[in-house]
Design goal:
Blueprint (H helix, E strand, L loop, with lengths): L16 H7 L9 H8 L9 H5 L6 H9 L3 H11 L3 H7 L11 H6 L5 H14 L14 E5 L3 H12 L3 E6 L7 H4 L10 H10 L4 E5 L9 H7 L2 E4 L5 E2 L12 E3 H10 L11 E5 L3 H12 L4 E5 L11 H9 L3 E3 L2 E9 L2 E13 L2 E12 L2 E4 L3 E2 L14 E2 L2 E2 L12 E3 L11 H20 L4
Parallel strand pairs: 1-2, 1-4, 2-3, 4-17, 6-13, 7-8, 7-13, 8-9
Antiparallel strand pairs: 5-14, 10-11, 11-12, 15-16
């Protein structure tokens, strides 16, 4: 990825090779066999398990933990993969502290939940290490399905469709499959090229052809897909980056956090990555935390997150906020950017305005604050870019700027389904995208089997 934003004054190579390796080591080291048995024994195996209800993919959590406790990690992995074929990555990146573990009976009673995410990783890692495949393709149906995007939603849809015997072609704009799992999460959350290992595991079922470097609207049109395939699944995610709406945001040294994270994820030498000495990140979600923490780990001396509302409003979980603080990141609330200060075209600071709530409306107070910065990251969300849909844009109904779907993932166009972040209701969670892709695939299978697709 291009590094045109990073010029003199923003440099890499501040740390020793050993420091880089340590800083970007596994955030949550895997449980060994004994640790997994001990942790699984803490589960109460609730009959009406609140953890299962909190899981977007509805994994039978008590069952898979019981299987671990009885020495059957392979059976446990199958229980997980039955509902979530990307269970390995979800075990690493899911905000379990706000989903299954938040409602764990142990958490409610003792403040220390069963480590569901780490147990899920243990089981799925065992199965993947042994290349244990649980699913054979059904007899070929003769039906073909195009999947736009090889992210979590697209991969989950493709795998489920292949299980049913359909032939799937995934069209992915980037050089690698994986979507945000490959390009969009902090490097310390998924090490050792796990995202690609998972892609290989998913497509090993057969019947899935991934074509990289194929972008909707550039290399093909939606109308081509609806004409040449029996069904289409749109899982292209979000391509746009929201602007700061601050004066001077085009200055060198201002870039979007998603690009920064993607560049870091693909870097073969962390020492080569340029980072500022004083970094300001604008935003309050997981991307803001990931950009801020990784800036610090790359050698930035001072990193500050500025968020326009209060701590309780931040999309980043309490765990992620604590992680940032533990790494020396300063989080400041009730601040919105007004002007990027530049010298010679390069960022030298950012002027922010204090905010407050006026009833239910966020307003600026007029009081200003200036922070010194040689690098500013925009992490205020991404937007869907419907232009790629071309002439179909007017026919494909949108809601709040994203694709409108029904409960089965059907769009307003015949034979076209969608899921993941590109749909209205998408919530920027890998696990939710997997559930939407899986469920849309089942809908596609029913429709093609009945001849209605």
């Amino acid at each position: 990825m291009a590094t045109g934003h990073f010029k003199q004054g923003i440099a890499g190579g501040r740390l020793s090779p050993e420091q880089y390796a340590d800083n970007f080591s596994d955030l949550h080291p895997p449980l060994d066999h004994h640790e997994a048995l001990v942790e699984s024994d803490r589960c109460y195996f609730c009959y009406d398990a609140p953890c299962m209800n909190a899981c977007p993919t509805s994994i039978d959590i008590p069952l898979f933990i019981r299987q671990i406790s009885t020495g059957n990690p392979i059976g446990s992995a199958r229980t997980i993969f039955d509902q979530n074929i990307l269970g390995g990555m979800c075990a690493r990146v899911c905000p379990t502290e706000t989903l299954c573990e938040e409602v764990c009976v142990r958490e409610v009673a003792e403040g220390k939940p069963v480590q569901i995410g780490r147990l899920q990783r243990y089981a799925t890692d065992v199965a993947m290490a042994e290349n244990k495949q649980f699913y054979a393709r059904a007899a070929p149906t003769g039906k073909t399905v195009a999947v736009v995007g090889a992210g979590p939603a697209g991969l989950a849809a493709a795998h489920r469709l292949a299980r049913h015997g359909h032939d799937v072609t995934i069209l992915e704009a980037r050089p690698k499959a994986g979507g945000l799992n490959e390009y969009g999460i902090a490097a310390y959350k998924s090490i050792d090229n796990f995202a690609q290992a998972e892609v290989d595991y998913v497509i090993s079922i057969g019947g899935i052809d991934i074509q990289n470097g194929k972008a909707l609207g550039r290399d093909y049109q939606l109308s081509d897909l609806t004409r040449n395939y029996d069904a289409v699944f749109l899982g292209m995610g979000l391509g746009g980056v929201n602007a700061l709406r601050a004066d001077g945001e085009d200055a060198q040294g201002v870039t979007n956090a998603v690009e920064f994270i993607a560049e870091l994820r693909q870097a073969s030498d962390l020492a080569s990555l340029p980072v500022g000495r004083r970094v300001v990140v604008i935003g309050g979600g997981m991307t803001a935390i990931d950009a801020a923490v990784q800036s610090k780990l790359l050698g930035a001396e001072e990193v500050t997150i500025c968020y326009r509302r209060g701590q309780e409003h931040m999309n980043a979980s309490e765990f992620e906020q604590d992680l940032a603080a533990a790494n020396g990141v300063i989080i400041r609330h009730w601040l919105q950017p007004k002007r990027v200060i530049a010298e010679g075209g390069k960022v030298s600071g950012i002027e922010l305005e204090y905010t407050a709530m006026d009833g239910e409306k966020l307003v600026g107070t007029g009081e200003r604050l200036t922070l010194t910065a040689d690098q500013v990251f925009k992490a205020i969300g991404q937007s869907f870019v419907p232009a790629a849909l071309n002439g179909s844009g007017a026919l494909l109904a949108l809601e709040a700027g994203r694709i409108k779907v029904d409960a089965e993932g059907r769009t307003s166009l015949p034979n076209v389904w969608a899921g993941g972040d590109c749909i209205y209701g998408g919530d920027d969670l890998t696990v939710s995208a997997v559930a939407q892709g899986r469920d849309a695939a089942e809908s596609i299978h029913r429709a093609t089997s009945n001849g209605r697709a």
